[in-house]
Amino acid sequence: xxxxxxxxxxxxxxxxYNTQPFHLKxxxxxxxxxxxxxxxxxxxxxxxxxxxxxxxxxxxxxxxxEHCIKARELMTELDFDEALIHAVMSHGWGLTVDxxxxxxxxxxxxxxxxxxGLIGACALMRPSKSVMDMEPKSVKKKYKxxxxxxxxxxxxxxxxxxxxxxxxxxxxxRTLEAMKTLEGM
Length: 185
Fold this sequence. Notes:
Number of helices: 9
Distance between the termini: 34 Å
Largest sheet: none
Structural class: mainly alpha
Shape: globular
Oligomer: single chain
Number of strands: 0
């Protein structure tokens, strides 16, 4: 059994391989959203869920063409726990790797990673630049416009929602609800 870094160690590691403010903020947001869902589904492992969220895009900035593949290499070199490595890799299922999300945590990461990006893009369009005054119907309207936040993969969001037994409206509402708990994000 390998190591599981603390949240602070994960944050420092993310910053070691990522310098763009967007990527660092995305790691923080996904980590916070994962913590939110952990409190509901796996409260004893909240920090682990948050670490997974923080590290999910560890390799993306430097090695986008090897996303999730390079992360495995980096985390293996650091002797990280296989459960952590599998969880991080599984969010690239069907895109860059064939590691399917198995656990509830992995399914949530797979679904919310893209959705947090879409919701974040929606927030930037608002006068407040915030999710705090946003309603799910506003996100749904932008979701239905493929040209809006085109980098946010709608099929992944749909597949992720289905894995969780949710429809897309539930994924939007639950992810938005989680993001509203992240003060200052």
